[in-house]
Amino acid sequence: MMKNNETIYLKNRPKIIGSYSIVGPKEGKGNFGEYFDYVMKDDCFNEETYEKAERKMIETAIVGAIDKSRINPKDINMLIAGDLLNQIISSSYAARVFDFPYLGVYGACSTMAESMAVGAVMVDGQYFKNVVCCTASHFSTAERQYRFPLELGNQRPPAAQWTVTGAGSCVLSLSGEGPEISMVTFGKVIDYDIKDVNNMGAAMAPAAMDTMLNHFKNTKTSPDDYDLIVTGDLGKLGSEILIDLMEDKGIKLGINYGDCGQMYFTRSQNMMCGGSGCGCSATVFNSFIMKKLNEKKYKKVLFMPTGALLSTTATQQGDSIPGVCHAIVIESVKS
Amino acid sequence: MNREQRNLAYNKYVSAKIPKTKAWPSLFNSFWVGGLICCIGQGINDLILLFFPSISEQSAWAYTLVVLIFLASFLTGLGVYDKIGKFAGGGSIVPITGFSNSISSPAVEFKNEGIIYGMCVKMFTIAGPVIVAGIVSSVIVGFIYWIFLI
Fold first, then answer.
1. Are residues A25 and A164 both part of a single domain?
2. Are residues A101 and A190 in the same domain?
3. Taking the CB of the first residue and of the last residue of chain A, which one, N or C, has fewer CB atoms within 10 A?
4. Nearest-CB residue to B126 (from A148, A206, A273)
5. Which residues contact B119 (CB under 8 A, 6 or more apart)?
6. CA A178 to chain centre
7. Which residue of A has its CA nearest to B82?
8. A88 and A9 share a domain?
């Protein structure tokens, strides 16, 4: 393992040997609908509360990923998971079903990259053989925690984003077959003093810029070296801001740049600035991007979900919204 | 450029870039939906007076409010009122039906956290400020009234 400031080169190149995604009905009708492994018929998933539904989604995603990786559940050494709820209850409560050691991580909407980065480093160091990473978010639970009750008749501002109901999970291992994680760049917490909770894209874009600049500098690569550069949930507004910010720094993001949140829903679904939440990047990565990597349509992908590390308490006390972004490079195996 | 200047410049840039709410279409929708709710209220009032001529006009107003509050809560429970609100904005928030919705929607949401600590406590999370403002202003008005009586 070589280290260059924020960037780590993974010498043993952990492989993603299985991935699974599960989404809600609205997300299933979105642009990535046909790629998801399972689309729920309703948001409740046959549970009493939305929180329990989110928990069940995580359990389903973990079981699905292990199933698709074709390894014995007994060989899983570690589960790394996170979600948006206070005290990450969905992940921790889901983890009690499984017989693995568990690490709970929180990086807001960047949790998928955070869990994968930590998992990849563990696997690369050969401390653990097989690690499962999982992330989920649910529109109804996030809305209740961060905003207003669901049935309240209020209007959403045009910069608002829709928290994706979905869970994504993947299995990292040194043996087996699948796309390889070659580099990881850990992000710093960046705060440009944005206070508008309805404009998360603008709050997170500077963090994405910082991580992206560090990544390109440390690895001596440019946007053209990647088949796809994808951010998590900056949304329509946030990704436009990121393109502007990068242009100011002299790097042009071209046609190979995209944002999961912006691409998630169709225009007719009228989702303002797009999708958000940790399920957004997790489900897109574990369905669409993984499929394209396995088919070798994409050879090198820079996956960098962003997270807005806010809490309602902090914003109500007048604090701004800090952002964080972790970058992972995934390469399809040469054949 | 130091940190404060950078943040200021960025905030300025973002506020120029952020999409604005289209004022006129949303004002128009608020206006006619709000007006419609008021007309429905007046209609209910007239019907009450028509069917129960013995009721005084003031009690008829009270019954009208009860009916409107019930209707809004009922529609909230059915999951319709948030759709009206999404369309009409202020038009469905300002009439008493909006107040009813702001109390019944947290009640629906937090029901699963128990009757007392969930529903009863959370019921006023949104309507609370309105009630506080009402009480405070009536205290002030009462005080002014008392001064003039002296």
1. yes
2. no
3. C
4. A148
5. B107, B110, B111, B113
6. 19
7. A153
8. yes
Nearest chain B CA: its distance from A277 CA (Å):
20
The residue ranges of every structural domain in chain B are: 28-149
Report whether A82 contacts A135 (CB < 8 A): yes
Helices (H), B3-150: 3-17, 23-51, 57-78, 81-88, 90-93, 96-109, 121-122, 128-149
Number of structural domains chain A divides into: 2
Task: Check CB contact of B6 with chain A, cutoff 8 Å.
Answer: yes
Q: Are residues A71 and A146 in the same domain?
A: yes
- Indicate whether A21 and A151 sit together in one domain: yes
Q: How confident is the model at residue A288 (pLDDT cuts 50, 70, 90)?
A: very high
Band (pLDDT 50/70/90 cuts) for residue A3 is: low
- Look up the domain containing A149 and give its range: 2-173
For the domain that residue A70 is a member of, what is the CATH number? 3.40.47.40
Contact: B81, A151; criterion CB under 8 Å: yes
Chain A residues closer than 8 Å to B86 by CB: 153-156
Triad A132, A138, A144: Cα angle to 5° = 135
